[in-house]
Model the fold of this input.
Amino acid sequence: AQSVAQPEDQVNVAEGNPLTVKCTYSVSGNPYLFWYVQYPNRGLQFLLKYITGDNLVKGSYGFEAEFNKSQTSFHLKKPSALVSDSALYFCAVRDDNRGSTLGRLYFGRGTQLTVWP
Amino acid sequence: DGGITQSPKYLFRKEGQNVTLSCEQNLNHDAMYWYRQDPGQGLRLIYYSQIVNDFQKGDIAEGYSVSREKKESFPLTVTSAQKNPTAFYLCASSMSGQVNTGELFFGEGSRLTVL
Done:
């Protein structure tokens, strides 16, 4: 079974400090991993994805994520947080097994990030 | 501009009424999805469709129905059989086929409130 865990419901950081939003996953094959961001009453916006290759993935708005296969993790990071980064962040996964439903993603419960000025 | 359009943005319904949420995309994507979002529960898949005239149940399909008569359109009907329909509903689409890396494109959502 495929699943995603986001162990923190909320993350609070001061503006200018580095931020980390945690994600761990479980898949039967090799993972395809994604981060999305959601602002209040809006749809989800794609931030970045890991398919293969370099374990450090760079995405939109200065975000990056590090894939760690041994720890089955894909934590989202940013070196210097902005107040405008405050939003709900979702991690998602699917595996590369051809038997799985193409395009179906499994989402975590979300982590609310608050950046204080 | 290419994208996904959901309507209405806000909808109020009395108990016992069916309502239909619209989802239209002009991205030429084969696959379309409906998710339900509740606070603290993340996104749960209701229905998905990989091709016109075909769709499959997701994890929480009871009380919902869909159709896929056109590639661009994937409407969701919330029936009176859905016991707790108040939620934020998100429509998404993606490319299909072996080259698909699974990235979803989302609409802006529809918030349904049952009175």
Q: What stands out?
A: The first strand of chain A starts at residue 3 and ends at 5.
